[in-house]
């Protein structure tokens, strides 16, 4: 007798939590679960701003997948998905025969949203994954190393496009990194420029104003320049051109201004908005009862019909929920509707500073920074229990 | 009564030893000695291949000048020499009034000799000083970091032009560095190419054949490719073009194929050969009795009228000799002719391998590597005695 085939695409927060859930819920031979991921590791997206600035090593932001799932229960395939064929119920891979599925979970993450800004994809860097952040770090260091040879100010000018969550957290890490970086390359600290450019009229749109002010004041005290209500019109090899024509020469431009869904999802024929799928209450793609979408590829709306921002917290809850629902489904049971329960948000500003809201309480400074670390530890705990927390966690 | 002014240009091996000698020989107010150097530190040229590969930090290859000379006895000026005016007996500096001298010591080091190879100065890197080697290291790391993003083989291909001393020592360090570098950037070690290109018919021309064979065999066993009797015709943004037209694509090209004298010496009007001054037996420039030249700017011939290669050993002996001669001179005494006493040569091949000749004995492997370290320690001892050896030395 053949068992249902569940294929999970992507080992991000959503996919990994779904796999972990199925691993726990299902008995031997109830289903054949396959997890496909491009890399042999899961990367902790909420920490990528640290290795991107070089304040921590990228190995602290990744975990071997084999170390967090039971490969006796879950087939793990390291390969790149090239196409999703919904009618044939199969997934095409770069180096293998297509995979057949009965149930498909799409957790393929996001891609940068450029909002049509010219030259951005070609000339800017993106905080996306291990490969991209280690490249940012090395690029920046190379530019700093060139400075004493060429003495051009743009080599030590960094433009961060976007003052949302990732942008602000990255700027916070850069501030922490600069003293060491300047010592390494014999550069006076005051010569370095970090410029955060944001099109919206505020830093961290949607965040509590008092906390935003705290963050801006702190970062400005460390020399960060904010250009708010300032759209970037073009990104060139030399820097950025702002709306109105003013140019900022910068050898390093990092774009954090937004994400869209993975192109593969759009190409599959599923209806998307900016590449993201507006899922139903069971996290299903519209029109495809056997296809579920989690994480940044999905779009969940709140009661006022506004979309929740794509976060690790959302993806984690989706994955946890979907694991249980899928187990129920293959046993002929009922699925339960998904409801997102926001637990709070903390944005780090380097190692020792942060701002956050948990419940209806606001936190700043050391207390918020501590909360942020607790949240990181919680993810490790969900993935690998106490032993993983002890092995990889830092307070 | 005014005392004679001695101005020393450059705090390399030659200039620094001259300054140290004068500091020791002269009594208070016998002369006014000024040492001019572009950086606040002396760099240990014989070690630069290590930070260039990233096997050791560049701080291990430099010493603060203030820590090795007595600035109560020697005036130290950190500035860049822009011109030597022999008729006016003055030296022009970038940020200060010209310096008057009665005796001038030129130890301004070397510049890359390109032998007219097109594009070399623009596109290759050079193992010259702290600024240049830290840039090589960061460039290489950035190229390796890009590899997982772009998957182009040339990003992890390194061409070293020249298989002389520096070239071979650098290749030896690269071999040592690669395992760590590949781990850092998730690159399979066997994919990296290190290609050493040499126009002459042998590696390490002039060196003992048996030792050369040992070095080549060792480096080849570590995957290094040698292209001997192969002149480089052009260096481009993409790599090198060999004589005959064959192209090697390489993101990192490091040229170690030779040096010439500093341009400032040529521009001063002193007669030079490839920018180097054929000094007389008192290390004087031809036609200028008060101008002495030491180190890579000078050219000393052996008894068969062949020039000695420019080495740290030569510069050190010149500086030691000149310090004594200058002290004698200002006291109205006789100068003694300089005679170079070669003490042997050791070329490192990474941390644990080397080849060398000391006296009439040949050394390979661990013993030679140990000798190399002893030579490094000797330089620290000459500069700063036992305390400096203990502070900065490594065995």
UniProtKB/TrEMBL annotation, chains A, B:
UniProt xrefs under InterPro entries: FAD/NAD-bd_sf, FAD/NAD-binding_dom, NADH-Q_oxidoreductase
The keyword Glycosyltransferase is assigned to this record: no
Entry's Gene Ontology BP terms: aerobic electron transport chain
Q: Where are the transmembrane segments?
A: none
Keywords, sorted A to Z: FAD, Flavoprotein, Oxidoreductase
* Keyword Transmembrane helix tagged: no
- What positions does the domain FAD/NAD(P)-binding occupy? 5-319
Name what cofactor the protein needs: FAD
User: Which molecular-function annotation in GO is an example for this chain?
Assistant: NAD(P)H dehydrogenase (quinone) activity
Family as reported in the entry's similarity comment: Belongs to the NADH dehydrogenase family.
Q: What is this protein called?
A: NADH dehydrogenase
Lineage here is: Bacteria, Bacillati, Bacillota, Bacilli, Bacillales
